Amino acid sequence: IPEMQQWDNIIYNLTENEEEVVYTFRLINQDLYSRLTVNSDGVLLRFTWSDQEWNMNWFSPKDECDVYEKCGPYAYCDMNTSPVCNCMKGFEPRNRQEWASGDVSSRCQRKTRLNCTGDGFSQLTKMKSPATKAVIVYNKMSLKDCKEECIKNCSCTAFANKDIRNDGSGCVIWTGELGDIRNSTAT
């Protein structure tokens, strides 16, 4: 959540082991109280106790691209385009008329049949990584080795650095449909 980086009163923690991946945070000032809730519409809200009342100071989703899997597999959401859903390079809408009207239920389809040898990858920049439903994670692998590992696996659909800080490290390989992708608003 990019705007969380601006909150200077919170310590973040990522726990990663063979059994779980858990993201947690806690307030630095123990005199402050904060809570997260999910309302009946599925909106995540953060409240802080101040002046004898709970004040909402953050919520998500912020726009329609924040809605989980808004555009379906092999598509990305971009609030700067109309319609907001766009098929990835090498894919096209199954029903162009429905897609143009904003109905993306027909989904994107591959333009040419996948050929496990000779197919390549298109680089997507400034995008949020796809949902991690079916992934393989390598903690100590270069991006070059990651690409080679992905090419060897015919069910590999994408690869990326596991951690993009400090020129990147580790490797994530997706082995299923790519979904829940949007242009990144983080700077």
UniProtKB/TrEMBL annotation:
Q: Which CDD domains match?
A: PAN_AP_plant
Q: What does the record list as GO biological process? A: recognition of pollen
Superkingdom in the source lineage: Eukaryota
| Record key words, sorted | Disulfide bond, Kinase, Receptor, Signal, Transferase
Q: Name one Pfam family in it.
A: PAN_2
- InterPro entries linked to this entry: Pan_app, S_locus_glycoprot_dom
Q: Name one GO molecular function term.
A: kinase activity
Has the keyword Transmembrane helix been applied to this entry? Answer: no
Where does the Apple domain start and stop, copy by copy?
116-187
What's the name of the protein? S-receptor kinase
Q: Which organism is it from?
A: Arabidopsis halleri
The encoding gene: SRK
